[in-house]
């Protein structure tokens, strides 16, 4: 099958699981024998232009901007797989494109200006329940009403009128939680296919934490409010070592939580994180937002045989509870809750590690993803192009 993948890559200096997922998916499709053309725009290149802020805002509001149609026509795909178009690509080409279109909704941006459904550390659905103007009132995007306004304007009319949602023959989400969230917002559940992300297999020989080396825990991700680091650090036991890997808009504030047992290590690339994961007692995922699915770091931990402690309500916690890959604690745990969870992982680490590896191999393997997504592509091809089901 000839598959064209359209994606606007986020900045490389900000960790993006979505960028990693799309790149891995392109490789997996090629490995499975598909012909794949990646049609991309990249923030690293476009943001060098002085006019970029205005261009991005105009593209978001009007749907006018870089158009992939010429490249798509030259390739002649059987199906076009759209990932992120914001804020790089035009959306108007979608209505004119006559071939099958599959779209993956990696986040909740059609429902929320920042794509997280969280404001001030708590779940927020005001843009869906009331009006997108709520996002402007609260300056949700980058703390700026001016920067938020284009996103709010693009949401007028509701998610059913979002150009990608309206045009796609099949909509892909990476968890049932995401499908439920979109259905609550008015998109029929029958339009969705749940296809979880995957990670490449870990090396065949995986080192475990050294005997007698003591516990060491890991947080790896963006340093921003919705990721739950303030809640984690407030409750973190002072006698447990925690490494914090990542960077982000709240890095300076969060470093104020640094103390003898908590170490901020800054940014590390994905290869470094994957190599380090097996040596940790466990990964902690404290996200406060619902998330569209388990983060890639969670899947990487499973492949490494590293158990997970997740805060209730996030995508990792859903999967931990379902598959037994660690322990779930309350959304805002006390130190006692967290201590009990960490102690349990230490006691049961060998069995939890085995479960993690089994789940990674059976559920989140590249082959599982390619089988599932090929089924989605065939379903899109078998129905009239451009007709929303």
UniProtKB/TrEMBL annotation:
Q: What class of enzyme is it?
A: transferase
Q: Which GO terms describe its molecular function?
A: glycosyltransferase activity
InterPro entries of this UniProt entry? Glyco_trans_4-like_N, Glycosyltransferase_grp1
Instruction: Report the domain of life of the source organism.
Output: Bacteria
Q: Which residues form a coiled coil?
A: none
Give yes or no: UniProt keyword tRNA-binding.
Answer: no
Q: Name one Pfam family in it.
A: Glyco_transf_4
Residue ranges of every copy of the Glycosyltransferase subfamily 4-like N-terminal domain listed in the record = 24-201
Q: Which UniProt keywords apply?
A: Glycosyltransferase, Transferase
Q: Please name the Gene3D superfamilies in this protein's record.
A: Glycogen Phosphorylase B
Transmembrane stretches, start-end? none
- EC number(s) on file: 2.4.-.-
Q: Could you identify this protein by its name?
A: Glycosyltransferase family 4 protein
Q: Which organism is it from?
A: Actinomycetospora aurantiaca
């Amino acid at each position: 099958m000839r598959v064209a993948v359209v994606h606007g890559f986020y900045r490389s200096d900000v960790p993006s699981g979505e960028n990693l997922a799309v790149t891995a998916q392109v490789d997996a499709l090629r490995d499975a024998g598909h012909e794949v053309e990646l049609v991309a725009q990249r923030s690293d290149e476009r943001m060098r232009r002085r006019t970029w802020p205005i261009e991005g805002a105009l593209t978001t509001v009007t749907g006018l901007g870089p158009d992939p149609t010429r490249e798509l026509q030259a390739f002649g795909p059987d199906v076009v797989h759209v990932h992120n178009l914001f804020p790089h690509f035009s959306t108007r080409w979608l209505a004119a494109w006559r071939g099958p279109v599959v779209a993956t909704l990696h986040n909740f941006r059609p429902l929320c200006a920042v794509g997280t459904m969280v404001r001030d550390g708590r779940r927020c659905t005001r843009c869906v329940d009331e009006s997108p103007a709520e996002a402007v009132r609260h300056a949700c995007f980058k703390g700026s009403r001016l920067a938020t306004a284009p996103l709010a304007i693009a949401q007028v009319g509701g998610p059913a009128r979002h150009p990608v949602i309206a045009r796609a023959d099949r909509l892909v989400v990476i968890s049932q939680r995401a499908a439920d969230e979109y259905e609550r917002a008015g998109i029929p559940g029958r339009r969705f296919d749940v296809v979880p992300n995957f990670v490449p297999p870990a090396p065949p020989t995986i080192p475990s934490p050294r005997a007698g080396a003591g516990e060491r825990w890991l947080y790896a991700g963006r340093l921003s409010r919705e990721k739950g680091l303030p809640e984690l650090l407030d409750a973190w036991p002072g006698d447990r070592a925690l490494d914090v890997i990542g960077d982000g808009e709240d890095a300076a504030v969060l470093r104020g939580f640094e103390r003898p047992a908590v170490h901020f290590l800054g940014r590390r690339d994905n290869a470094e994180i994957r190599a380090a994961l097996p040596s940790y007692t466990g990964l902690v995922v404290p996200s406060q937002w619902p998330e569209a699915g388990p983060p890639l770091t969670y899947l990487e931990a499973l492949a490494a045989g590293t158990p997970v402690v997740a805060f209730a309500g996030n995508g990792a916690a859903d999967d931990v509870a379902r598959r037994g890959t660690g322990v779930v604690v309350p959304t805002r745990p006390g130190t006692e809750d967290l201590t009990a969870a960490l102690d349990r992982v230490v006691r049961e680490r060998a069995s939890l590690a085995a479960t993690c590896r089994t789940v990674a191999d059976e559920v989140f393997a590249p082959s599982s993803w390619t089988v599932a997504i090929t089924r989605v592509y065939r379903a899109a091809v078998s129905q009239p192009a451009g007709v929303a089901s």
